[in-house]
Write a structure and sequence with these properties.
Chain lengths: ~375, ~375
């Protein structure tokens, strides 16, 4: 459809595959926790906002209700979320139309092409109430035919940019991010570059989905973000990222990894504020904001085990580090990280100011 | 949807994954050759039989034309076939409706859950004209919502049974297939058991597709078969299978593999006659036979290299043998097979009577 080559996200964006002890499947309890707290909101959203007056998309009397999870990674989180969505849609449908023929659900699991779809498929729940399909490709481009989805869902994926903004790795740019691996928020030019990239990516995402989602259809987005007035470097996630960055700097000084590689490494992540998100969605114009809530993850308030934290972190960032530093150095990096994490445990978990927030957003596709 | 557990095909049914020298992707030139000779028939079938008067399946003005390949394995054959189908449908559409909005294509690649979808997705053509999705699961059950497919395609997959018929591995049954690993056609009770299983499987396949394909939609089937009045043991494929069986018997006698395992090994394959197929399709009643042709593969008439033949054979049967005999014995089996194949080369390729045929079938879903 589109020129795929310009739309390809590096394979490193994929979470760790398989179902072994280091896999995302076994190390995504933060993301699962989010679903637990978002579940009631999602239920309420579907109950109050879903509109079945939209005609059936098929010429037969049977309605196919198509759902897509954008950035599903490997189960079980995606299966859990989809099951809850299907249940909520069914309840709403049966409450509205008694004695009507059953809805048939088709669920599309989307993630980057390098995602481990083999494991995803092998672990699909056997007693699911839907027909399943996998859709490979970046969600910053089109993935589905026009007006074929009724509900889109994306959890903990949209803070992943399509690429690191070029300026931050350019030694000649005022936005050069020397000494940091993330958009900490303290360097204005860096923040500007990251924010522009996020705006651009979100706009691509909304435009693609606007084509694919039927008028009146819903989109639920859960995305990592910042509380109002808080910088990334002041949040728990930001502090962990800084710690990883400082490990890389230490290791470069010790001659274990190359300094140049450390200088050119930046995380393709951007945590946004409510204001930024609202502005992007309103300017885009294809969707109406039905709800915008802040999710406060209980895990952010508890002190967690170092090993647990490091393995969760590794399941997400291993591919990224591997692609940049090479396979051999990744073990060393995470060993060093675990050590430094333990040594700095108290400052990493020094209280409430360390929280980031996650945004829950419910959008409705405008009817053109 | 259905009880998936009763519908699960063992993982051994999957062709060899990846894209290495032993993969199906690199060892499927027989199957590709079939597409080359079937291509013109397929084109003609679509030109003459496809009916665009059927309303668009979407409420928007844009039509989504959904195609599924049942038993796609890993590319490139499936991509080649799908490209040809899309081209033919587009041509027909544009000839019928000038100045109409473009069709959008959604192509579903189906195979058993153990198929290597990761490789399939990574090798998807970048400039494809369709939205791609992978659908895991056996095609002997439902895989899609009702009336959502417009064209189904299945090439070289339907001669794979959902299971080996139980009687042929039962030492107490008159259908016990002692001394052979296939339905050679010479033992009547064995042939009866295999034929019944095939009938049952084809019927399940047709019933599932009848639900999924829109009234008036097409199904193209290419399936291995027998010329009229010819037994499996008289065909090239049958002779190869017998040779493999005799290798297993030899190796059991030499004490390399267990005799009991050899006795209980049977191929879940059935090659059918035109008459059988016609009868099954007519009795099923959901589809009308628009065309039934015999494809004569040019490769059957040329003497081929032993190494080439063995590697093609291995890409298909490795999983099956591995599951039954264990990984260690598979290398030994194929080494022995290559040796015996070379020694018996002339009798294996002893001329025209050795051919099997492939059937090309075009079905149209009846409008209820």
């Amino acid at each position: 459809m589109e020129n795929e080559e310009t739309k390809t996200v590096p394979k490193s964006w994929a979470m760790v595959g398989g179902d072994g002890p280091r896999s995302y499947a076994k190390n995504s309890s933060y993301q699962r926790g989010l679903l637990d707290i978002a579940n009631e909101l999602m239920n309420e959203s579907i109950r109050e906002t879903l509109d079945f007056k939209i005609p059936c998309s098929d010429s037969s009397n049977i309605c196919t209700f198509r759902i897509a999870d954008f950035g599903c990674s490997v189960g079980p989180n995606t299966f859990f979320a989809v099951e809850k969505i299907v249940e909520a849609v069914e309840q709403k449908y049966h409450a509205q139309f008694q004695n009507s023929p059953p809805l048939e659900f088709q669920v599309f699991f989307n993630d980057v092409t390098a995602n481990d779809f083999n494991t995803l498929f092998k672990t699909l729940p056997s007693y699911r109430k839907y027909f399943a399909a996998g859709v490979p490709g970046t969600f910053y481009g089109r993935l589905f035919p026009k007006s074929t989805l009724r509900l889109a869902y994306s959890s903990y994926s949209l803070h992943w940019l399509s690429k690191v903004p070029e300026e931050v790795a350019d030694t000649k740019s005022p936005a050069w991010n020397k000494g940091s691996i993330q958009c900490s928020g303290t360097a204005k030019e860096v923040a500007k570059a990251y924010s522009a990239q996020f705006k651009n990516d979100m706009d691509s995402f909304l435009n693609a989905r606007a084509q694919e989602i039927i008028g009146g259809g819903l989109m639920v987005i859960i995305v990592a973000g910042l509380p109002d007035g808080i910088l990334m470097s002041q949040t728990g996630a930001g502090i962990c990222n800084e710690l990883l960055g400082s490990c890389l700097v230490d290791m470069a000084k010790l001659g274990v990894i190359s300094e140049e590689k450390v200088d050119s490494f930046n995380l393709p992540l951007y945590y946004s504020s409510v204001k930024e998100l609202e502005e992007i969605i309103k300017n885009n114009g294809h969707f109406c904001i039905e709800r915008m809530n802040t999710l406060n993850h209980p895990m952010m308030k508890t002190k967690i085990d170092v090993r647990f934290a490091v393995s969760q972190f590794r399941a997400v960032f291993q591919g990224l580090l591997e692609e940049h530093f090479g396979r051999d150095d990744v073990d060393k990096i995470f060993e060093y990280f675990a050590k430094k994490f333990a040594e700095n445990y108290d400052s990493v978990f020094r209280g409430e100011t360390h929280q980031h927030v996650d945004h829950f957003i419910l959008l409705k596709r405008n009817i053109d």
